[in-house]
# Entry
Amino acid sequence: MSLSPELMGLLSLAVLWTATLLILAVAIGDGRGLSRRRAQLRPLDPAAVGAEPVIGLLHGRAEAEGLAEHIREETGRSLPRAKVPTILLHPRQLISEIHGGRIDLGSGQTLELAAVTSSEAEVWREDGAAEPSDVDFEAALAEAKKSKGWRRRSVMRLEQGQELWILAEVKRRPDGVLEAKPTPDLSDPARHPRLLLAPFDPRIWLQKKTLFVWAVSLAILISAAAVTAIALIPPAFGLVSTLGGVLGLAYFLAVQPIGVWLRDQVSSPARQVVHRSWRGQRSGSTA
Amino acid sequence: MALLFAMYFVPVCRNPVFFVAACYFSFLNSVVIHNHLHQGVFHSRRLNMIWRAIISFGALYPASANIASHNLVHHHFDDDGQPDWAAPENVGFRWHLLNLLHFPNVAGPKTFAGVSRWISVQDRPEFRRQYLYEQIFAFGLTGALLLFDFWNGLFFIVLPQLWGARGILRINLIQHDACDVSTEWNHSRNFVGRGFNWIMCNNGYHTIHHNKAGLHWSDLAAAHVKDAVPRMDPRLDEPSMILYLIRTFFFGLKRPLDKPVGAEALLPPDLAPRELRVMEAEARAKAEALQA
# Structure
């Protein structure tokens, strides 16, 4: 029995489509997860919350400093071949810490948060603030050139008066203050979402990311269909068909990193692993 | 390589026997990359470097990538605080067979991105040159074969190469899934069948290989019995990989979740602390990279 070009062509298409469908299945799962999370963010009217716990989104302002913080522990290493002195920052640990405190929800309503461990809560961090500004670049670069690298702890604190969105399971205490309960069952995020504190509206973020996942998924599907269609244009294994084969191979090699990139793009802003770079200038001052 | 070229150039060799053999040997080629990057096959440095380039073609990835991805990160299950690039947690389908199929689609890109980052922060031009030579040889030769005859190149060169490269990534899932990588002796699953280990250069003895990476592969079986077996959960010794694959991925519809519990606490560890082993591995990698 010989392996005919037709048979091997089918095998190649099977490999391509298996990878495509698996990557799409993960993307669709992520998209559905984002939609589910978005659905949990139903705005709550603080005045309507009673003694029974309810899950929903509240909006307010931090009453004091030190309510919560997001910590990014990083190792910085210099890029020896970069034209401009550059430190590549590798996130070692991403920690959300809620120390506890009060949030003014307006209209005389107050929410009290208890201290919560990192695994039970998420403090979202905005994408900006890419470059550290609290240290001297040259000093950091000197450390980054050593084998241990430059250790940095980048802390985003929620400031007093800062606008906040809070997803929590809340109930009213006898003294009238609203109280966010610690998450009772972390293994069941659909029923008991993790306590979330965000300095921006998480609904907008989730909506954007959901649309992004669907758009990229559609692009992946269309690309796979297009290269398949080109490869199958008669005569089989002719010039156009071969072009389809070349495109199919390129697509297969590209779609895998695209799938990984897509997952990274939609992971929670509290846990997103981003390798940032900090560039200095030839003169030594920071960029 | 002979099988690949035979299928590519000689039509009569394009049959299932040659194809299956080529896929198997491409996987074995990846096993050889693994062993060679732990301990060079030759005494001559130049021969070791030439051999690295040749075996890079067999599985279509630069062999020296193993220094960062395997020797430094995977062996300690840690990328400076972040998970191993080939951690089983990279995949999360409920039906475990899909995890086996999908794993290389995630671990492959993560590994290449990680290796690129690692190289970018190293001030080792000799290593970069060696890495480049391996890429030129592996990708250049494959590209030339595709250019000369695209379809036969794709069917009889690239498909077996990808089988080998993706197979060695899948081994990470098979050998560490549902294990406890935070422990010293329950982080790996072992496949202890003699026949399997004969054709796989003793790569079934994975616990002891992780803990004592410098041991020559021919010494692993004895060291496994002496050091690993008394300390590990006995369920992590599997008599046959084939039976394990069938049981876990084909008949098991759900991913096994129970973590192993071993006797490691009851016996002296007989092992340097992990931090020290990481430092030793980094020193070895540095020496290796400087040698390149």
